[in-house]
Amino acid sequence: MDTIITAIATLAAAYFGALFAxxxxxxxxxxxxKASNIAAGNRAMFLLLRQFNELSVVKxxxxxxxxxxxxxFVVMRPSLPLNYxxxxxxxxxxxxxxxxxxxxxxxxxxIEENRFHTALQTVNERSKLHLQEVQPILEKxxxxxxxxxxxxxxxxxxxxxLFIQISRATDEMLDHVxxxxxxxxxxxxxxxxxxxxxxxxxxxxxYKAT
Length: 210
Fold this sequence. Notes:
The protein has helices at 2-63, 72-75, 104-140, 151-158, 160-198. It is mostly helical. The longest helix is centred in the first third of the chain and has 62 residues, at 2-63. The chain starts with a helix and ends in a 12-residue tail after the last helix.
């Protein structure tokens, strides 16, 4: 009888020991997954913050100083080529969102990424046109920076085609940069709230318009 009791006790100890080890390993894996997801969420928030900052710099330094100027298409200076191909969503690390009620967030992030790069493209295209075509023609016509010229004088100097082209390129830049900044703010709020809902009590990056 004592032998049977000892055997049962040994088996029970082995079983519960294995069960404890399994549960411990399972909890450890859960903690790792949670930490990985939180880190991925914060990287995504930081990505949005960087995109928001880049467009805000364009708005502050190029657009806003001359936004209301009737000849803004000329007086808004061009920028150096903007290339932020490294600002891309880490799709794989955020795939955990697909298993939650916030699965649409991942698609929204990809849409936002495309909107950001489209805005940069309009800045680059307008800058290239300004540097390579508009400025040389204005210089030949004797039109200097800081001078006071009518729209008619500028159109006569540039010609109707280029006058319309640079005007449209400038309007497109304003539209994409302004709407991109607004959309990035909204996307930041949406992702922040989703992450807080999934991992309450954890700390996540948040940004606001200044």
